[in-house]
Amino acid sequence: MFDAQRKRVAMLGNQVPNEVLLVLYCVTALAIAFAGYAQGLRKQPSRIPVYLMGFLACTVIILIEDIETPYTGFISVSKQPLIDASARLGDH
């Protein structure tokens, strides 16, 4: 149980560095810009692929930032296993 608690505390301290997020934002913006430029070169441009790529890129960034905080957001880690283990140890 103590190892699990140590892992949880360590996980809270391990976050994605701001430099990595900045590079992710820049690469995403550049990819969307290239997609828009490529669509503009076509004779009959369609905006749907550019919008779809923008939506998917934003979704990936949001998920990466959400995973960074395990107890809040869309994806959350339950504290119940730790509570159950504590209760079992308290009974002994």
Number of strands: 0
Identify the overall geometry: elongated
N-to-C order of helices and strands: HHHH
| Poorly predicted residue ranges | none
Please give the count of helices: 4
The percent range for helix content is over 70%
Strand content: under 5%
Terminal Cα separation, in Å? 14 Å
Biggest β-sheet: count, sense, barrel? none
Work out the radius of gyration.
21 Å
Indicate the structural class. Answer: mainly alpha
> How confident is the prediction overall: mean pLDDT?
82
Structure, described:
This protein has 92 residues and is mainly α. 74% of the residues lie in helices and 0% in strands. Helix 2 (18-41) packs antiparallel against helix 3. The longest helix has 24 residues, at 18-41. The mean pLDDT is 82.
Short description:
The protein has helices at 2-13, 18-41, 48-67, 80-91.
Element layout with pairings:
Layout: H1 2-13, H2 18-41, H3 48-67, H4 80-91
Helix pairs in contact: 2-3
Notable features of this structure?
92 residues; mainly alpha; 4 helices; 74% helix
